[in-house]
Amino acid sequence: MDESIVDERSLLLSRTPSASTKEEDVAFNILHDLGGLTRQTIPICLSFALQNAVQAISALIAGSVGSFELEVTSFGFMFFSCTGTMIGIGGATALDTLCAQVSTSHSAADNPKILGLLLQQCLLVLLGIFGLLIAPIWVFSGHIFIALGQQQDFAFATGKFMLFMLPAGILQVVGECLKKFLQVQGESNIVGLSTAVASTVGVLVTFVLVRWTKLRLWGVPCAFCIYQLLTVVALLCVIARKPAIRRTWYGSIFGIQKGISRLAFYAVTGILTIATEWWSFEILAMMAARLDPSSIGAQSILMSSDLLFTTVSLGISVASSHRIGGLLGAGKGLEARKAIATPYLLSFVIGGIEFFVIMLSRNGYGRLFTSDEGVIEKTAQVLPLMAGFQVLDLSNGGASGILRGAGKNHLSGVCNFLAYYGVGLTTAWFLCFQKHYGVFGLWAGIITGSGALLVLQSCCILSIRWRKLAKDVSRLHATSD
Known about the structure:
Elements: H1 30-63, H2 67-91, H3 93-103, H4 106-110, H5 113-139, H6 141-147, H7 152-164, H8 166-183, H9 188-212, H10 219-241, H11 243-246, H12 260-288, H13 293-329, H14 333-339, H15 341-360, H16 362-365, H17 373-405, H18 409-434, H19 438-462, H20 466-479
Helix pairs in contact: 1-2, 1-9, 1-13, 1-15, 2-5, 2-7, 2-8, 2-12, 3-5, 3-12, 3-13, 5-8, 5-12, 6-7, 8-10, 9-10, 12-18, 13-14, 13-15, 13-17, 14-20, 15-17, 17-18, 17-19, 18-19
C-alpha cells in the first residue's frame, strides 16, 4: 500500500507495473499528504525569500552610500523583477508541469533523460525570449526612462545599472530552470541550501564592492551577477554529484526540437500569468502615488511586507504543481482529485498563522519601518486588509499550482487577468478615488480581486475530470517518448 503514495523522494523510484494499483483501492490520508506538501514547500519558499532578501539588503547597502544610489538600486531591482525575473520564474513553471508529470511516468522509467531534454528545451526557449525581448529593453532603458519623464541623470544611471545586470538576468533564467529540474526530482532541500550559501556570499560581496572599492553604486549589479553565478555553479555541482540526477541529464542537442512547441506554450502562459499578477501590484503602487504622503508611506510598508509574504504563496504553488503533476503522470487521477484539498488546507493553516501574527503586531508594525506617527497610524488601519489578503493569496497560490500540475496553465492566466484587471484594480480605483477611501480602498479592491480569483480558479479545478486527465497525461508522455 505504501507504493501508492508519491512523495518528494519517490518521484523517480519504483515505477514497476505493480505500482499502478486500482485507484479505487488507494488509501488517501490528507494529514500525511499535508505533511509531505509542507516539507516540500518550506525549502522552495526559502529559495524565493533569499532572492528577495539579497535585493533588499543590496538596496540598503547602496543606501548607506547616498540617497541617489538607493533610488537607482531600488528602481533598477524593481525594473529587473518586472521584466527579467518574470521570464525566469514565470517561464520555468513549464518544468513544474512537464517534469512533474514525466518524472513519475513509465516513459521516465524507460528513458530518464527525458527530464534533461525538457530542461534543455526550457533553457532554449527562455533564453531566446530574454535575448529577443528583455535584453534590448534593458540596453535602451535609459532612453525609455527619459521618455517616461524621469530626470536625465537618474534615467541614465538606472539604464547603466540595467546594462550591468544583463549577465545576472541570463544567469537567473538558467538558475530558475536548474532549480525546477532538481526540485521536481526531490532535491528541494539541497536547492534551498545552495541558494542560502550563494545568497550569503552575494550579500558579503555586495558590501565589499560598494563600501571598500571604487565601484560604489556599480558594485551592486556586479555583486548580484556574482550571486546568480554562484547559484548556477552550486546547482550544477549538485547535478554532477548526484548519480540519480546525473542519469536524467541530457547531454546532446539531438531531438531537442521534439515537443518544444508544447513547452514553449507552457512557458509563455507561465510568463503571462506571473506578469498579470505582478504588474497589477505595480499599477496599484502608481495609484497610491497620487495620495497624501502618509498614505504613500503606508503603502510602501505594506507592499514591502507583502513582497516577503508572497514567497510563501510561490512555494505552495510550486510544491502543489509537483504533487498534482506527479500523481497524474503516474496515472493516479482519483488520488490527484483527493489531493487538491491539501494545498487549500495548507494555505488556510499558514494564512491563519500569518493573519494572527500581523494582527497581534498591528499597532506597532509601522514602527519597524518609520517613526512618522501619521504613517504608523495609517499602516495600522490598513493592516487587517493586508492580513486577510495573505489568506486569499496563499489559497490562490495553491490553486494555481494545482492547475499548473494539471497542465491547465492557460486557465490560471485567464483567471488572473479577469480577477485582477476586471475586478481588483477597477474596484480599487473606484473605492480609492471615487469613494475617497484612500489606501484602505486600494487594498479593499485588491482583496476583492483576489477573492474573485480564488472563486474562478476553484471553479476551473472542480470542472476537471481527473481520471480522464490522468489517462490523457500518461498517453501523451508515452507517445512523446
